[in-house]
Amino acid sequence: METLFLRACRNQPIERVPVWLMRQAGRYMAEYRELRARHSFLELCKQPDLAAEVTLHARQVLQVDAAILFADILLIVECLGLKLTFAKGDGPVISEAVRTPEAVSRLPRQIEVGELDYVYKAVSLIRQELPPEISLIGFAGAPFTVASYCVEGGSSREFLHTKRLMYCDFQAWDRLMSTLAEATAEYLKRQIEAGADSVQLFDSWAGCLSPADYRKYVKPYSTKVLQSLPADIVKIHFGRGTALLLQDMAECGADVVGVDFMTPLAWARQQVGGKALQGNLDPAVLLTDRETVRNEVEEVLRQGGGQGHVFNLGHGIVPQTPVDLVKYLVETVREQSSVSFL
Ligand code: 1CP
Description:
Elements: H1 4-9, H2 30-38, H3 41-46, H4 48-62, E1 66-68, E2 84-87, E3 91-94, H5 101-106, H6 117-129, E4 135-141, H7 143-152, H8 160-168, H9 170-194, E5 198-202, H10 211-217, H11 219-227, E6 234-238, H12 246-251, E7 256-258, H13 265-271, E8 276-281, H14 290-304, E9 309-313, H15 323-341
Parallel strand pairs: 1-4, 4-5, 5-6, 6-7, 7-8, 8-9
Antiparallel strand pairs: 2-3
Helix pairs in contact: 4-6, 6-9, 7-8, 7-9, 8-9, 9-11, 14-15
The structure holds coproporphyrinogen I (1CP).
Coproporphyrinogen I (1CP) binds near residues 23 and 92.
């Protein structure tokens, strides 16, 4: 069935602008915090019934047009034989960072993504429970963003180790990126087989690169991932700080380009050659009040131009966000975007 969300992604006629929000399930919700008091983050990801519950609960509370699988872009690194933990408050830690060409050469050439079976089970449980008019988005990290965590050993601001490997040893870089690209394509295919009708490729940190470096060191691998997926599946490609990369990101083969909150949608529109756009309200607006939310939503809808626009934030919801304001945001998008089509 063609959901409203899928039609918007394909730039087809719609009766209003669909809406979902990056990180719509997470710490800003009391029910999530309660579950987290009893289970670690990785336990939530690895128990399909819990992952499904978190996904469906957020979708139901917010009444958004798409659910996104509850998982993380870093789960795949466990298939490389790396040890992943989430330290309290500090984000992800990969214990043996892959910093040198020797470390890269020790990684398996082919990653077995069958180990991520719990993800595919969660996808099919979610699909069974989700109303048919609601889309289910699968996702993965793009090779560059996942590689950056493997090389840095966790989050980073400057990506210095990553860039050193990339500039100094192209062979090792190519091997790491090709291995990740192949595994990511397979991982997304399996999510699609399990019931996802669309996928988002998160290249959250690609914006730390110049367009020339993006084209040389990143674009071929993200292209490989997106182009190996079935043609009829909707693909969204998102990064942050990517105003100057949007044209290249669109060319990788997505149907929809995700736009961060620093980039005007009108500018993005000129870069993506007729593809749909997703975005781009600043998540900080959700820390204000109803009037501000309404004004900012109207502005995003105006810039989005109706057809070919999926309403979203320009990056993930932050943990301090009040749930009521998020619900208000979704209601406002629904009302205001249908009014603008009358
Ligand atoms: O409960 C907790 O303490 C864990 C917090 C949390 C959550 C709820 C993390 C840790 N990941 C997630 C879920 C998650 N991650 C989703 C699920 C669904 C949803 O959107 O509702 C998704 C899509 C992601 C993707 C993800 N993980 C990205 C890409 C998106 C983005 O925000 O740019 C990235 C970079 C990660 C890595 C990650 N996971 C978690 C943390 C704290 C981080 C680090 C972020 C950083 O390096 O700053």
